[in-house]
Amino acid sequence: MLTLLDDCAFSGDEPFIGQQKLPVPGVHNSQGAGSPGREKVLNPECWPQIEAYVKDIVGHFRHDPRIQIWDLYNEPGNSGVFVGAPKGMAYDTRLEFYALSLMVNVFAWAREVSPVQPLTVAAWHVPYRSDCREAFTPMWMPGSSDK
Description:
Blueprint: E1 2-6, H1 38-41, H2 47-60, E2 70-74, E3 80-84, E4 87-90, H3 95-112, E5 119-122
């Protein structure tokens, strides 16, 4: 099972190439970075890059017997940041709405390349469904009207 996107960015840092920070002893996933990073989730102008990534990976492996299932997005909207055991904080209250909107698009993009494997998501939560607005319908993309 491959996981393409993940909002568990507990370090609070955006992902970067290069030497990673050492883990903080006693703090769960203390240096975990999200994929593609929370800043990109919150910026729909970046979503065409995510679309290309999803279609490329899922499309390339859509018939590969080594892939039994796709976990397209792990815990979309998980905004936790660990600032030291046992303290935590929330990253940005907008993350849940944008992540849910992105998740809906990720499922559509993956379906466009017709994988034979099942598509799943490791759910997180949204406290009030009304916060989701249009998340359960096709979402806006760059160039459409602002929401």
